[in-house]
């Protein structure tokens, strides 16, 4: 099936062009899929994941420091700078794109699978409408917009949680100490964006694009029963999660060289 996967990937790239015969309906499909992927419940879901990531990483990196009473005063600033870098470039992006593949990929696969099962796509074709021109294009743009947004929300939640946990555990240092060292490897003089933002955006957009394409093509396969719809959702979650991990694995060889 490798050839089929490559063919579907190239096909999905072509549908990034919004060649809608009706821009009103194209916009409606885009809004529909944005509501599935980036609804307020998604914001809360990914913010909660960010809070947990920020708490776990900050609390336990200091709690289990070897010979804490001796090493903590010497390397606490280095730990904070490394923690900020890891949260921004590694921990939050990896965890939240996996959650994106599971939650949002399942939502899209369910939507498309039920449209196939109820013969809505056949009805579109009977009216001379190309289903992927509206559905796939809307899904891809929904993921391209929502993936950086949701990961950004998760990182902000992780960052402020890290600040709260550090100040609680080390009130003698305070927030200014955390602020100075947490961003040391992220902020460059004269630059507005964090260091590595372009690398981060590249892998997030590729991951989001892949999740959207997998969800559409797996959900769009023929469905003869509700069981096959459910099987398509499961297949989407597995395939999209593996794709996201593969993207991060591939970027690790070049991003941090």
Tell me, briefly, the overall form.
elongated
Number of helices: 9
Rounded average pLDDT: 89
By helix and strand content, what is the structural category?
mainly alpha
The separation of the N and C termini measures 33 Å
Rounded radius of gyration (Å)? 21 Å
Number of strands: 0
Low-confidence stretches: none
Order of helices and strands: HHHHHHHHH
Helix amount: over 70%
- Largest β-sheet summary: none
Amount of beta strand: under 5%
Kindly describe this structure.
With 257 residues, the protein is an all-alpha fold. Helix content is 82%, strand content 0%. It has helices at 2-14, 23-37, 40-63, 68-117, 120-126, 131-169, 174-182, 197-219, 226-255. Helix 2 (23-37) packs parallel to helix 6 (131-169) and helix 4 (68-117) crosses helix 9 (226-255). The protein is elongated, with a radius of gyration of 21 Å.
Care to give the gist of this entry?
By secondary structure, this protein is mostly helical. The protein has nine helices and no strands.
Give the topology, please:
Layout (H helix, E strand, L loop, with lengths): L1 H13 L8 H15 L2 H24 L4 H50 L2 H7 L4 H39 L4 H9 L14 H23 L6 H30 L2
Helix pairs in contact: 2-6, 3-4, 3-6, 4-6, 4-7, 4-8, 4-9, 6-7, 6-8, 8-9
State the main characteristics.
mainly alpha; 257 residues
């Amino acid at each position: 099936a490798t050839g089929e996967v490559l063919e579907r990937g190239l096909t999905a790239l072509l549908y990034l062009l919004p060649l809608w015969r009706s821009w009103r309906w194209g916009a409606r499909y885009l809004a529909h899929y944005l509501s599935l992927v980036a609804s307020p419940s998604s914001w809360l879901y990914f913010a909660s994941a960010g809070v947990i990531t920020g708490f776990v990483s900050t609390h336990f990196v200091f709690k289990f420091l070897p010979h804490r009473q001796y090493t903590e005063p010497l390397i606490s600033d280095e730990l904070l700078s490394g923690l900020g870098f890891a949260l921004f470039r590694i921990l939050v992006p990896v965890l939240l794109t996996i959650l994106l593949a599971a939650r949002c990929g399942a939502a899209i696969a369910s939507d498309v699978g039920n449209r196939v099962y109820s013969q809505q796509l056949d009805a579109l074709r009977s009216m001379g409408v190309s289903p992927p021109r509206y559905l796939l294009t809307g899904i891809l743009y929904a993921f391209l917009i929502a993936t950086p947004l949701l990961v950004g929300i998760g990182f902000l939640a992780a960052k402020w949680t890290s600040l709260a946990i550090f100040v609680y555990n080390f009130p003698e240092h305070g927030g200014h100490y955390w602020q100075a060292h947490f961003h040391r490897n992220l902020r460059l003089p004269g630059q507005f964006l964090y260091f590595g933002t372009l690398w981060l955006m590249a892998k997030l957009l590729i991951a989001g694009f892949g999740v959207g394409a997998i969800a559409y093509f797996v959900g769009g396969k023929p469905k003869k029963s509700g069981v096959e719809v459910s099987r398509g959702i499961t297949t989407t979650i597995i395939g999209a999660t593996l794709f996201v991990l593969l993207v991060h694995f591939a970027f690790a060889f070049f991003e941090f060289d």
